[in-house]
Amino acid sequence: MGNEQIRVIHLDSEKGWRGGQQQVVYLVSNLVKQEIPSLLICQPVSRLQIYCREKNLPYRSVPMKGELDLISAQKIAIIARKRKYNIIHAHSAHALATALWVKIFYPNVKVVGTRRVDFQPRRNIFSRIKYGASLLDKIVCISKEIEKILHGYGVSSKKLKTIYSGIDVRKFDAVDPMAHFREMYNIPADHVVVGTVAALVGHKDYPNLLKAAKYVTERMNSVTFVALGTGPDEKKIRGIRDQLELKNRFILAGFQENVGAFLKNFNIYIQASKKEGLGTSILDAFAAGLPIIGTKAGGIPELIRDQSNGILVEASDHVKLGDAIISLINDPELRAKLSNNAIEFVKRFDVDKTVNQYIELYWELLR
Fold it and tell me: N- or C-end of the chain: fewer Cβ atoms within 10 A?
């Protein structure tokens, strides 16, 4: 079977841009390069629509108003039937429901869902039906931990497959540190910059990271924390930061397009999540050559080898996280070792390997 027989519609119902959307465009753009017919269906006025328009990726915007939106499913089924697509690949939980409705209207497609979070699906009837449906051909898990969770939920192991997320491991090679970074944020020249890239949402556990920052700054004067990201918990997180009197020592820099330039200005990277499907921000930090401290949450331990390419600490324990930060700041030799090993380790997660595994999966389903 040749690649020309694979024809894929990708569904993403999110309006914002996080790691999952980056993975979608990695996949679609690489499939297009390999001349595999692919169409991304996204929400109108979403970041994905803007990206696809700017990068000339094939897309259609279809309003997806919820998991019971049969009108959008019918529209997508008409597109699939007209252009003879044979795979519907859903990249979020809500999109998976839409994909299953599409298959009811157009049975000649295989349905693939990618699960990116390590939360157990809800135990209501609709979720049980969605994840147990005979219409669902395969769920791709981006970590072994997610596969374990879904199997425990009751999904047949035959329907589960782990394909790790990938990145362009060379994407920061030509990126320079941001000019005037320290002046922009009033960071003293002698300060170690401890950074993170994480949405301002509950499972990223900013309260614990802020407590750890307070713990560290009470014991060391020469350290500043910088966080990139936006999210619904921003007001709450700013409040906690200000309450802990960290306003000048913990900078909330918001959403940034040029993440690589920021990473090149960080000295240490932190992933403080209490839940995490895998953590592609960690892969980015590896590619930027940063020493990393991560929590034993979700798929993070599948990326970080303790004391080899990073440091692992218990989740939601600000003292252990703070002690790890202090220890790493005080040990430049360990930082250099972790940095060198990170650059080598991340090669295992080259996005080309991820894309090829998806292509192999599509072949298997179409056989």
Answer: C
Whether 295 and 194 share a structural domain: yes
Angle of CA points 116, 118, 120, to nearest 5°? 115
Residues in the chain: 367
Q: How many domains does the chain have?
A: 2
User: Is 130 in the same domain as 16?
Assistant: yes
Contact present, 99 and 113 (Cβ < 8 Å): yes
User: Is the full-model pTM beyond 0.85?
Assistant: yes
C-alpha torsion sign, points 252, 258, 259, 265? negative
- Ranges assigned E (strand) in the chain: 8-12, 38-42, 59-61, 87-90, 110-115, 138-141, 160-162, 192-197, 223-228, 250-254, 268-271, 292-295, 311-313
Residue range of the domain that includes 238: 181-348
With a cut of 90, say whether residue 125 has pLDDT above it: no
pLDDT at 237 exceeding the cut of 70: yes
Q: How large is the greatest C-alpha to C-alpha distance in the chain, in angstroms?
A: 65
| Angle separating helix axes 280-287 and 19-33, nearest 10 degrees | 70
- Count CA atoms within 13 Å of residue 318 on its CB side: 13
Token pair for 49: 């629509």
